[in-house]
Amino acid sequence: MGPTFDANSSKYKCCCNAVNVKTGAQIVAIVTALQLVLMIIDKVAFFSSGYLSYEIAIFIAWGFALACLINAFRTERAVYCAPYILVAILGFIIAVITIILSVIALCDNTSFARDFVLTMAGDEEKETDADVKQSATQLIGWTIMMEIVVESYFAWIVYKYHIFLRDQQLSRSFVATVQYSTRTAEPADSNS
What we know:
Layout: E1 13-14, E2 19-20, H1 21-45, H2 52-75, H3 82-107, H4 112-120, H5 130-184
Antiparallel strand pairs: 1-2
């Protein structure tokens, strides 16, 4: 007997086994779309020129990843989940580097990391109180740590959806092969 596919198996559940990974991945896509809309609103409402090219690159990468994930829902092909997972891994690496820079900024008041983190926070004034700068640096660090946790969980859900689609495709191709081979098989010759 070949592989069987049970879409309701606990293997394909997420969110404490409460929902199917397809539903979970759809929720991830909706949240990602909302994040992209908020990025646009933030840039329009609070335009700042600092790190604009970096933010545009992030927007394009996440937009492409979201488009691929939506295409995975439409075509039910696992390969379209990969861009989301890769962008999430890249975002994880960038977030870890930013956290390291935040820690350096907290330890050394004159470092390049402090200037980078404060520019990222939108505080480019040199006369700002040291406590305010330290609070901004800590806030950025904690925010990015929360982002790492949420994005890691989202990437895990999309990865499980990738496994779901891959197993579903394997099951379909096995059934198609069995049906094809049973239709083309010639009856055995009874004279031998």
